[in-house]
Amino acid sequence: MEGRIKDYTTTVLILESITDGVFILNSDGRIEYANKSSLDLLGAEFDEVKGKFIDEFLVDSTELNRPGVSEDEEECPSLLEKLRNGIFRNIECYLVNKQNVTPVLVTFNPIKSKKGEVEYIIVIVNDISDIKAMEKELKKSQVIAVSRDRLRALGELTVGLIHQISHPLNAMHLRLDMLKSRLKEKGKISTDKLLPCIKDIDNMINKMVNIINSMRLFAQQTEDNVLEIVNIQEVIENVVSMFMYELKNLDIELIVEHRKDIPYILANPLLIEQVLINLVSNARDAFIYNPKKREKDRRIKIRTGVNPGKWVEIYVEDNAGGIDRSVLDRIWEPFFTTKEIDRNSGIGLTMCKNIIDSLGGNIKVGVRDGEGTIFKVILPIEQKSETQELRNLIEIFHRG
Ligand SMILES: Nc1ncnc2c1ncn2[C@@H]1O[C@H](COP(=O)(O)OP(=O)(O)OP(=O)(O)O)[C@@H](O)[C@H]1O
Ligand SMILES: [Mg+2]
Asked: Which of 101, 127, 153 is the last residue of a domain?
């Protein structure tokens, strides 16, 4: 075998038949041999390339993108620099001749004499135009996908904003209705009755302003400046105060079971509040839409749990009959709803999931058939992006 390879004609025959381009250069870098594939890639005859320097045809990919660079070494370090630094394999270059520009991967094999001097250099050139074309297509489709995702996210966010604002708006509506009917009944309202109502309405307006601000921050994903030390109990109390009157009117008992040992966590309280508002609204709606399933003992319970040092848990459970197995897989989908389409957009749970994901947590659903539904929210006690300062603050809070 060895004897045959050494045979000049056989070697040339092999070189001519392989699909990779092969150049053999002398120690100066001038072309002494070019196989058929390399000439095909160049679109040239052997006479046109014979004796010429290889760098007339082989251009580093960075150089091709910098037209008009001088031959000053400082200015064009690319290919030369790579070789000097001992990089001889899989260098991305362009094979250039007249109108032909072919992206290639190049490998240099210096063949040395016994004395260690370079006698000649074998250059193997691999055509990668197909791969490059595919990369370009992929990039194009990625750009399209990113813009599509952004548009979709923007759309969801807008719908989400409307959705979130509708809760305090409804609550304000109820308070104003109550004031109106009192006025009709008695002709006037005592300051004692009026002041708490005004305070409530003022709170709702603040809530809407806060929601808009937090949504803006959420959209910008500026995690760092929205993180705060959050007392889960306070968040739950806010949510309870929002739903108290409404649920009482619907004959639904709202129970809170808060454990004393729940630590403060690092998160955005408004976002957690929005998640709980969504979950409680869904539980409320489940009673409204299936009134037959539970006529007495209607209950919504918010309770908390903890895995020390790791995460806190918030459960929102109801006994409104559960979620039909046939739709369970779809409830997280944007715009999926089983309710009246003009009042509900089907974005509530999508928003919850997005928010909890952005806080590094997890949200899951459990159904007790015919009984009710439990949503379990897990939130990490510390956020990955937290600063040392905030971590210290949390420690101080824990200690004292
Ligand atoms: N506690 C629950 N009990 C029964 N079904 C529920 C409960 N929570 C969610 N679902 C089901 O999941 C669906 C999707 O909920 P999601 O909050 O995403 O949208 P929605 O409440 O229908 O509309 P929106 O939240 O935009 O007002 C609901 O339409 C309902 O069928
Ligand atoms: Mg909902």
From this structure: 127
* CATH number where 392 lies: 3.30.565.10
Among candidate residues 56, 46, 48, 47, the one with its CA nearest the CA of residue 21: 46
User: Residue whose CA is closest, atom 8 of ligand 1?
Assistant: 282
Q: Judge if the beta carbon of residue 349 lies within 6 A of ligand 1.
A: yes
The answer to whether position 280 is within a domain reads yes
Write the pLDDT tens digit of every residue in 372-391: 999 999 999 875 544 444 44
What digits encode the pLDDT tens for the residues 329-352? 999 987 788 987 656 777 889 888
pLDDT, tens digit (0-9, with 9 covering 90-100), for 290-325? 877 777 899 999 999 999 888 999 999 999 999 999
Q: Give the ligand 1 atom nearest the CA of 347.
A: 26
Question: Mapping DSSP to helix (H, G, I), strand (E, B) and coil, where does residue 71 land?
Answer: coil
Q: Is residue 237 part of a domain?
A: yes
Residue 197 and residue 101 in one domain: no
Cα(232) to centroid(ligand 2), Å: 21
Is 319 a pocket residue for ligand 1 (Cβ < 6 Å)? no
- Distance from Cα 112 to the centre of ligand 2, integer Å: 75
